[in-house]
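The record is kept unedited without comment:

——
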Amino acid sequence: MKKRNCRFEVRFTKDELSDLTKKARKARLTNAAFIRRAVCGAEVREAPPADVPALIQEVRRVGNNLNQIMKRANALGLLDVPQLRKALEDNRAVEKLIADTYTVPSD
């Protein structure tokens, strides 16, 4: 059984439908999903450029590498661990900033 089984019909002018479709495409949503999010009060933003998920993945990879280096350096006492810890914190802050800016909460 479908989750959404209540139907509601809305009529638009050509211009209104065109505006709705443009906004939905920018957000990479269907018209119906766009309307549902707008009705629920969610902020509907434009979808991020295609390279943003790759950027987030790369920042996470670098953070993971920093974390592994920090653990190894701490165990061997070789590197300046506080400076490495600061670099890891900076990396996590950048990751959070990118993710908060470009991700849209799911339905």
Observations:
- The longest helix spans residues 52-76.
